[in-house]
């Protein structure tokens, strides 16, 4: 299976954009923590770039 990187741009950050785009997708999705991705069927894989802030918060 080939790996791909996909960048899909929208002028607005509306929840409907990712929900509609990922409708029916059930694979892995590397995401930035934007909660709307939790409305998809994808298996979410968090972005490690955001982890240090969580340790500081804790």
Question: Which helices and strands, and how do they pair?
Answer:
Layout: H1 16-21, E1 28-31, E2 43-46, H2 51-57
Parallel strand pairs: 1-2
* Average of pLDDT: 86
| Shape annotation | globular
Per DSSP, the total helix count is: 2
Structural class: alpha+beta
Distance between the termini: 39 Å
What is the radius of gyration? 13 Å
- With strands numbered from the N-terminus, the spatial order across the biggest sheet is 1-2
Structural commentary:
The protein has 2 helices and 2 strands. The protein is an alpha+beta fold and 58 residues long. A two-stranded parallel sheet has the order 1-2. The longest helix has 7 residues, at 51-57. The N and C termini lie far apart (39 Å). This is Transposase. Pfam families: DDE_Tnp_IS66 (PF03050). Residues 3-58 form the Transposase IS66 central domain. It comes from Colwellia echini.
